[in-house]
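chain below, 491 aa
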Amino acid sequence: MNKNRSHAMQAIKTFPSKALLTPLLAALVLAGCASALPMPAEHAGVAVPADFSGTSAAAASAGAASAAAATEAQPRGAWWLAFGDAQLTALVERAGDANTDIQQAAARLAEARALLRSADAQRLPQLGASAGVARQAGAQFANGASPATLGTAGLNLSYEVDLSGRLSRASEAALLDAQARAALLQSTRLMVQADVAQTYLQLRAVQAERALVAQSLDIYRDSLRLTTRRAQAGDAAELDVARMQTEVSATESELLALDRQQAALAHALALLAGDIAGRLELPEGAAQATLPVIPAGVPAAVLARRPDVAAAQATVQAELARVGIAQAAWFPDIALTAQGGYASPELGDLLRWSARSWGLNALLSLPLFDGGRRAAQEEGAKARLEAAVAAQRGQVLTALRDVEDQLSALRLLAAQSEVLEQSVRSAERASHLSDVRWRNGYVSQLELLDARRNALRQRRNALQVRTAQYTGTVMLIRALGGSWEQSGAPA
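prediction:
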């Protein structure tokens, strides 16, 4: 700064009109002393590992997905196609057009882009036209007359010299805000897609569970009819009939509870798809979705394309630019203006060549005392920057935790599913044998009911674990910011 100041003072001494150039040169010296703001560390200083603890590094080197660039505009891929369910695909595409959360996020992005255009316009020359008629009294003109009116018409041209970089930083901050909004739109779209997929898969699981319970209810009703006939023939006790009737009623109650849960999920799915609850037509039937296979070795660098992480990074950069704006308030502002047009005491002579007038102005302004306002604004901008950096760090840590949670859950669910398959086979075999032995009078009705209840419980547990695998896969895709493939293709 001392070197810049000495050069400027030497230039003042050599110029004959140094009194006029002193303010301008002083402003240039101050602008030259402005230091560049340091860029924040990548991922807010979080040391992102090469891959997740739940994946294999060897498999990653053998052809798994690679790191993706951090950009809010990068396609996240039609990842729902990996489930192979046409109805799921139709619902996700429908929600992309009609979901109100996506529409609100898109509107906020449009607002941010409009603010960016407004900030860019401040850096361009401003041209305006003006015309007016004013009542005058006591003004003496060149011809000695004292007109009662004065008409003016002309053009005004103004331009603010961005000496301190304030306007450019404001434009940069608006651009980064728009990028953050674009990333949030992607995040909202991904969230809605994941919610649609999870709700749909849960609805299909409830329908499948209802089918199991309905099947068990048919078996219990057949057993109740058989027990009633035996009781009438004197081969069974009334207690056996009461027990079977209790089992039938309890199963009917479970069926009604599943119907209530199914209706709630259908209404939630309608809301996500932008439709009125109760109007969404979804035919019942077995789920057509297949469980996608997650490749081993998913690298942790895919978090760079996660929309909320990209939005947090853009927010930090925008706050950094706003710190520069606050610091630029200490430097002088230079505004250049020019006016040209006509002025005449007679409206009929307003557009004559002799009534022309023009003017050029240069204004340099530098507040000397503001009661600490600029210092407070700079401190506030730095505090907001620190908060944004902390928020970004928290976002990155949360993203890493989300992925690790889902990878661990899916690994354990796969093992649990294998164990439950064996349990289901054993329980169904035991139920079948108990039914045969009960019909032949070798076991009691209590043993038969216990075997049937156990078989139904194991089948429902297996179905719930399978559903958890589906929803866990969707949550992993959401945690990764989209498909685990770099190209965004479904896995």
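The longest helix spans residues 166-233. The CA atoms of residues 108 and 213 lie 47 Å apart.
thats it, cya
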